Amino acid sequence: MIIIEWIITIAIVLTAIYLVARSFYRSSTGKDSPCAGCTSTACASKKHGEAGNR
Amino acid sequence: MNEQTPDIPSNEQPATKQPNIIHVALAGNPNSGKTTIFNNLTGARQHVANYPGVTVEVKSGERKVDGVRLQIVDLPGTYSLTAYSREELVARNYIIENQPDVIVDILDASNLERNLYLAVQFMELAVPLILVFNQSDIAQKRGITFDIQKLSALLNTPIVLSVGNKNIGTDDLVDTILNRTSYARERFNISYGKDIDSEIAAVQSILESRCSLEFVRNKSKWFAIKLIEDDEEAVKLIQVDRNSSGEILKTVACARIKIKNIYGSDPEVIIAERRYGFISGACQKCIRYSPEQRHNVSDKIDHVVISKVFGLPLFLVMMYTVFFLTFKAGAPFIHWLDTFFNWLAYTVSSCWPEGSDSILKSLLADGIIGGVGGVITFLPTILLLFMAISILEDTGYMARAAFIMDRIMNKIGLHGKSFIPLLTGFGCSVPGILATRTLEHEHDRLTTMLVLPLISCGARLPIYALIIPAFFPLQWQAPVLWIIYLIGILLAVICAKLLRATLFKGEQAPFVLELPPYRVPTVKGVLIHMWEKGYLYIKKAGTLILAMSIILWAFSTFPHPPDDMKEGLSKHEIHQLEMSYSVAGRFGKIVEPLLRPLGFDWRIGTALIGALAAKEVFVAQLGIIFAVSEEEDDSETLRSKLRKSFSSLSAFCIMIFTLISAPCIATFAATRKESNSWRWAFFQFFGLTGLAYIVTLIFYQAGSFLMSFFRGAL
To answer: CA-CA distances (angstroms) from residue B714 to B303, B649, B707, B709?
Structure first.
């Protein structure tokens, strides 16, 4: 039981590390919006259209 | 010498423009003195013809100046460029299809705000434009005075003063026409408010990518506005392109519904209001009226709200009221969420036998519920703050706040337009940094970008919401938050001033701040804005903060100390040992000597590192670190633990440090991307951290000195 708990915990922690690293990588390379998502009309990220290129 | 032309230009594109022929289109409101100016220019020898396709008369004439032929077409007198009347259609179709070299818009100077409405629509069309303030003598008699130079710079358009019936200003106009045609066609942008702007951008984007009509793609923004205004002619034109019209019109319909939902009025009404807002903003800056000229309700309110005497104090009172209501109204909701997460942690923990030191239990109760729960607890504060800001925005007050700040910023040598990205920064620094694209000059842009993280973003609010009630009595909670925000604004202004005086010297470009008329906000509109912010907060808590909480929990838990070290220690001492033995604890101990002069200990050090990922993680990390036992990890307990560990002065310094210090990673990435330089991103990162250290050190040391001095005196 203890071993299973450890496996689950390690899996969760590794997944979290992967997700955070992926999030930072994608935002720093411009693949994702660097923000958590916004409604700004000035935002030019791909996610929010071309408004920022005005 | 004037000559009569046999034909006026037709629907066809004008013939290849020779340097010695300039096509001039004369436009203006009815009764603005257009015909008189036309006669002055052409010597009253005009040709009258029917414009092809419609039966509205269009006159044309000619004037020769130094071998250059000015072919002048007198367009029908109109108030706007909508498709409601034939005159308007003729005027706008002529401009779009014939592309004259220059448009001369004749305005009745004694009724400028109404007349500028047409001028603004010409500016939207991005055509070369000259404004003629006709009947300027009457305006002067009525007590209206203009700062022509400033207004011309603001509108980015030459302005000529004239008195048509006395033939004053005609030569100036001719000279300006001759010069004007050498100018490039500039783009001109008015903000119609963030909701409408984003819908325009969406329609513009689909027009550019899907529409097969080249002239629509070339004037995509103008067509996007017209489609959202439900302009019949524009819709008909799009329907010609059968392949894409369905998709385009569907996007337009969605945009119209969204705008109507938010504002409770048709988009065309709101857009017209925004145009008048733009005009009002420009006129406020450059035109002085005698008291009897100021008549409408918005003007009367503005007389107080943006006055030099009451403007700033009223803005500060408004900010204070927002913070007070946010704390006061949010407290019961925060308590309910506290109770809920307390119950959740207890329920999860009770799945294991009492006293169990299961690692999974610790991860779920201390790491996930303690971390994410601690952040979500402050959702009511976020919602209430953004509800208040949304109400202020929708009523039109925030535009006035920007106007007040613009005046102040200009006085200290900063670009007023910077305040708009700074205002956005109250929500999140990242869109604020992206909004600096509206600044034309690189120096203004970089200055604003670098100081923007000093404006306290929404992510820092949970930190204040945790600390302020823990250390300050109710009557002091709103003032403390108010002071924190003010310190941020003041530091941003001071730093920007320093940067402009040292690294980024240069001139500033003028600009217009829109002053839309005051409106009663719709409940639906406010709720939509509030939900947008709330949703993003919950999304962030469920993704990045959740993942960071798990990682920080692991750093705060591993490695475990060997069992022989725990022998003879109490439960509390064992926990302290485990914490200080962990990665986070060891790192905290390393940085502790640096943080001691600021009144912080190693636990704050680890939380500050976590805050680099996202500022809310600071709260999550404190929740994890201070979780002594699963029964005690709710935020009230956290507040009482903080109270035991730190003084009020230290608590205030923690808030100051988190306000000023290095921005989160997302802001760092945005600065890097927008400045296109790692240098500025690192300059901002280390510069702000250094500034945070110095300012906090001064606050803490001066505060400690004063406290010991007064204690000694008592």
So the answer is: 50, 19, 11, 9
